[in-house]
Write the structure tokens for this entry.
Amino acid sequence: MASGPDSREWVRQRRQRTPLRGASVTIKDSYDGGTADSLGNFRFKTTEKGNMTLVITNIGYNSLEQPISLTGTPVELRLTMKETLSELKAVTITAGSFTAGDAKRERSSAHST
């Protein structure tokens, strides 16, 4: 997508404006893309042209789709992702015991007959 020394693209977290390292950045319906570095920067080249959609994903964040126009010149983007709010369902844990091993099982079977 980007080429040339003056092109910059980065992904930031919405709330704290901190870089999102490891965000996956791809052009929708193509194999072209890259991954954001530790500062949230990404850069890749593509032969695609015209109106496209850039898809950005990262664990713990809502996916982001950004329309872009590719004309063969570098594109500069500043993208911000929103955290996914997820709620865990209640989990019930009960204690119990079990035994493993054939010797114990054989004794238990003999007592139940």
Residues 102 and 108 are 10 Å apart (CA to CA).
